[in-house]
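From the shared-data thread, chain only:
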Amino acid sequence: MYALLSVSDKTGVLELARRLHQRGVKLLSTGGTARLLAEAGLPVTEVAEHTGFPEMLDGRVKTLHPKVHGALLARRDLPEHMQAIERHGIPAIDWLVVNLYPFEATVARPDCTLEQAIENIDIGGPAMVRSAAKNWQGVSVLTDASQYEAVLDEFESTGAVSQATRFALSVAAFNRVAQYDAAISNHLSALSFEQREAAPQAWPRQFNLNLIKLQDLRYGENPHQHAAFYGDPRPAPGSLPTARQLQGKELSYNNIADADAAWECVRAFDTCACVIVKHANPCGAALGADPEGAYRSAFATDPTSAFGGIIAFNREVDEAAARAVAGQFVEVLIAPSYTAQALQVLAAKANVRVLSIELPAAATPAAPRLDAKRVNSGWLLQSADEQLLDETALKVVTRRAPTDAEMADLHFAWKVAKFTKSNAIVFASGARTIGVGAGQMSRVDSTRIATIKAANAGLQVAGSVVASDAFFPFRDGVDVLAQAGARAVIQPGGSMRDAEVIAAADEHGLAMVLTGMRHFRH
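Structure, as tokens:
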């Protein structure tokens, strides 16, 4: 029995080779992997010695040989195949351990040249992987270090690798090759011959999307629709696909969509915060000295809409917060962590889906994210809206400037408005939402709805501040919020009627701050 090991990422390969050797497997290898094994005292044969043909072209050709591919592709159940490789002196290779040249990591570097990208396109590796994966009934193909332990344990305990495991490894191998080829295509499609040494264009001529199914869903937005939840191959730290479900029923399509909205909103705050989302919109958000206080303030914004909502915290949930949350009907609860006492309280609500998502360290650089929206026979792709409010760009345009307390509330309301469907209007006071108007066809209607919501909840609008995700096209929205008692407003500006809107704010004695940026969310 032979194993061929040729890896760029050498994590775990030495222990893998050692355990294979102990089970009587003969080791073949290439280049640096062979040197690593030999230096560890393991008997290893270089592929060049095995094939009788030296590596050439600076290593571009080393495994493209019948003694490699014949050994991987020969079907063990066909006597003519086995006779053919025996006639040519080709021993079958039963294990292939390959991970590919680091193309993705190479092109991720901002200073990557075309030559560096090209030289990190693996040829022999994917060819071997495809050969082994095609012949999965006879070959175990490992393409990631995370696979080593379980496959070795099975091999050592039973003396073989099962057909089911080999098939799963084959599927994983083809998936890896597909991801690799997609990365190459995406990068090269973002270059032109004339600009081949320039930075890649933002949007390649062909965009290849690779997704991994995380779970099947019972149905989609409605029971007659089919659905599944997919994640990126390398999900960003702190994103919803990295969540651990600690208890509760299976997540539904709508649960996941709303949970993402709640989590992305709450993690935008540095201090202790709670956000409650219903149908993709925050219906309450607040800061607090502790999670319980933040929750109670957020819930008070709109108790009716909070029924059956998604609740997210950016701090560990303790017993007091858990008891408060358990007093309402909640579909999903999200937090970085929970105390043991909190989990005991929540266990009494067995159907509540409790998710834990670890917040990434502040120092962790975030990779650029992509937003996608499906249209019939096409996709709309854009960079994610991750731009922060530029303090230096804020411009007070009214005679009255906001007080320090109003400015703090304006910042808070602006963050909530960013995660509210357009047209978005958010009233806030004391680091809590007072009323939210979302998703209306006109901004003035969103403003009216927000004041109605506040009145229904018995909350005081007078003295509050307002955030608008985009400019006021007419003064009517400003008139409505001023008549309700708001004292300050933050909005992007940029309307052809800005002067009229600013004049209306001055008439009402409002303070108005322009951000110079908007946050449409459709």
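Residues 163-189 form the longest helix (27 residues).
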